[in-house]
């Protein structure tokens, strides 16, 4: 019975320690570190949405307890898993490295993670920032349109992604006049018959291949757009 109580006491004490260590770190209160190079977590980790992120913390034999936290939430304390997220798994817990993996990463996983250790009853921490990149996606684009020559036209192409994608418009009709716009909105004042055809919207952010969609613009002429050849 005493052994069980002792284990419970140690677990509670460790939970309080890790929570206080994280609280001190994020409120700007200095954590007693002694050796500024220990523990040493990785630099910023950048992964694409849907991939796995590995967070590594270099430690040594001075460590008596170790944990990974996301903000103030304990993910792992030693070999014990504290979070309910099945995507978070322990990869390594040795005398030199303490690593976890977050599988199928999503944008809400982005943010600071803390490697918190205890040596000689002194808490020490090291932080790494997880950056999640997202492929570009066109979420809204104008429908095909028919308009009378001389009127104004506005085409819209809204895209999302991380980093924010660059959106460009290109006129790809055989009669194209080479018009290009680097904006979500394409405004054409007093459209002419030469500006009819297909307009291509491209969204890119270097995370994946650009996403492309097209809009067909039909220009109705007040007089015949093409004169029949004389027999």
TrEMBL record:
<dbReference type="InterPro" id="IPR050876">
    <property type="entry name" value="IgLON_domain"/>
</dbReference>
<protein>
    <recommendedName>
        <fullName>Ig-like domain-containing protein</fullName>
    </recommendedName>
</protein>
<keyword id="KW-0325">Glycoprotein</keyword>
<keyword id="KW-0336">GPI-anchor</keyword>
<keyword id="KW-0449">Lipoprotein</keyword>
<feature type="domain" description="Ig-like">
    <location>
        <begin position="39"/>
        <end position="126"/>
    </location>
</feature>
<keyword id="KW-0393">Immunoglobulin domain</keyword>
<dbReference type="InterPro" id="IPR013098">
    <property type="entry name" value="Ig_I-set"/>
</dbReference>
<dbReference type="GO" id="GO:0007155">
    <property type="term" value="P:cell adhesion"/>
</dbReference>
<dbReference type="InterPro" id="IPR003599">
    <property type="entry name" value="Ig_sub"/>
</dbReference>
<dbReference type="InterPro" id="IPR007110">
    <property type="entry name" value="Ig-like_dom"/>
</dbReference>
<dbReference type="InterPro" id="IPR013783">
    <property type="entry name" value="Ig-like_fold"/>
</dbReference>
<feature type="signal peptide">
    <location>
        <begin position="1"/>
        <end position="36"/>
    </location>
</feature>
<comment type="similarity">
    <text>Belongs to the immunoglobulin superfamily. IgLON family.</text>
</comment>
<keyword id="KW-0130">Cell adhesion</keyword>
<dbReference type="InterPro" id="IPR036179">
    <property type="entry name" value="Ig-like_dom_sf"/>
</dbReference>
<dbReference type="Pfam" id="PF07679">
    <property type="entry name" value="I-set"/>
</dbReference>
<keyword id="KW-1015">Disulfide bond</keyword>
<keyword id="KW-0732">Signal</keyword>
<keyword id="KW-0472">Membrane</keyword>
<dbReference type="GO" id="GO:0005886">
    <property type="term" value="C:plasma membrane"/>
</dbReference>
<feature type="domain" description="Ig-like">
    <location>
        <begin position="136"/>
        <end position="218"/>
    </location>
</feature>
<keyword id="KW-0677">Repeat</keyword>
<dbReference type="Pfam" id="PF13927">
    <property type="entry name" value="Ig_3"/>
</dbReference>
<dbReference type="GO" id="GO:0098552">
    <property type="term" value="C:side of membrane"/>
</dbReference>
<keyword id="KW-1003">Cell membrane</keyword>
<dbReference type="InterPro" id="IPR003598">
    <property type="entry name" value="Ig_sub2"/>
</dbReference>
